[in-house]
Structures are given as structure tokens and as C-alpha cells.
Please model this.
Amino acid sequence: MLTAKPVTKLTCIVLTLFCLSCKQRNIVKHNGEKDLISFKPVLGISYTEIARRSQNGLSFNSFGYQLEPQWKMQFVSNDSASIYSPTKKRFINFPLTRGYDSIFNTARSWLKVKTITKDSLIVELLKAYADSVDTRGAKVYMVFYADNYIKNVLHGDISHCKSPNRKDSVYIQSLTEAANKDFKKGFAARQPAELKSKSPLVTISKRYTEPTMLNNFDASYDYMNPEFDITIDKAYANFYYSFSVFVDTAGQIHYGKPLTVFSEKSYEENYIHLSTAVMNSYLKYYLNFIPGKTLGIVHTSEIAVHVTGNRGV
Model:
């Protein structure tokens, strides 16, 4: 059980280190480690995820993906879990399937209970492949506090737990330095690059992903793979090209790759030649590119652009 002390940064660090030690505690009683787990002792308790980290203690990977605490959930029964939808602003019931060795599935996710009490819950994410599950785990851990514990003991202060730590900042800085030497090592920006038009002849719209039950209400695609539709009126010809560009720390752009499939190599080479010309003329001339940043650190990142040219009359 967690002690009734005010939350501090040290408290969160200790809990995270405990989580990452991977020592199983069978606090929810069931007949042996390999038997089906029972959630009966904690039914109806609402938990809020306060931290999500990999085994090395980082909340970012080399692609810039951030492990964010997002879930709110409660176990309704041994075969049902209620998970909060930030889009619908209410809890939605999902079927819950229990496996052996404290493994369960809900909301299209496979999870393994590491420790669970009426105050806290730690689960490990599992990787699924078709009809099989890798029980060795993904080495990513979700840490929950019970809402009552957050309210009555922590007095609602969980900001230290949810915030990236210094280790994350040092890691992002190292990725940034590598990208400064080679723009192709650019990584996803938590605050993605922005595009601004300098001409009324050029319009820009950013594509957004709607969080739904099908993607587990995860809109991380929008910062991992930012996409922009760009329309150029009075262009030299009618055209449409989809390709990626790297936006460096100075706001300069570099060609990435075409975002289409080619049946022949010659078609790909011609496409790259023409789309590069569009980038070097229209995009560099008519647009301002504001580089992305993560944890306040400006760095190179890759974005996708879908460019339409309208010749007009």
C-alpha cells in the first residue's frame, strides 16, 4: 500500500523505479501465479494513469514518440472494464478477457498486471501478433493511482509524475545534436513544425486524426506524421505531388521521399525530379516553415506535404 504522504518528485521516481524493477507482487489473490487473475477486490475503483515509461525510464523513443499517460479506467466485473473516452467525455464499457499469469485484454490492448491495490495499479503493455501474444512484454509500463488516493492523499497534485524528467530532456538533446549533423536523422516533434503562407495564391490546411474507439482514442499520428494539404493557384501547370520534407532548426526544408507507389524505377526518378522542383520553387518561395520542438528544444523533423497546382485560365 502507498503511504499517506504528500506527493513529491522523489515519490514518483521511487514508484517508477519500483515499476521498472519487474518484480511481481500478487496482491490480488488468486490460486497461483498461473491462474486467472480476479479483479473482485478492486471492482468499482476508478484509476487514473499518472505515468507511462519504458524499462530504461524514458518516456520518448528514438523516433520522438512520447509515452503519455492517457487512460482512466475501472474494473466493472471480471469480464468488463470501463475506460474513459476523452472525445465522448464519458466512460465506455469494454469486454475484458482474462488470460493466465495475470494477463488480460480490454480496449483492444493486451496487458499484464504487475501490482494492484486499492490505491495503485501497475500494468505492462504486451505485444500481440495476429492471434498470439508475446507474454515477455513490451517493457512499457503504465502506472495508475486510484482517484480517491489522488484526491484525498495527493490533493490532486500529480504534475510531477506526469511531466517528462531530466533524463528525457538529455535524451531529446542527444537526438537533436545527431539530427543537426544529418537532417535525415530528424525525429517527430511533440510540437510539430508549422507552415505559413506568404501569398494569397497559396492555401494550407493540416490534416487531423479523429480519436475514436478504433484507434483507442490515440491521436499521436498527428505529431508523429504531420500532414499538410497545400494548394497553389495560378501554377505553371495542373499537378499533384505527395512527398515528405525535413524542416531543420533554421526553417530550411530538405527533400525526404515520395509518398506514392511506383511500378517502374524510371517513373519514381521522374516523380522525384518534378516534385523536388516544386519544393525548390513554390514551397521555398511562397511558404515559411517554423521548425518543430520537443520539451522546448527546437530540432529537425519530417512532415508530409500533398501539393496541388491549379493552372487556372
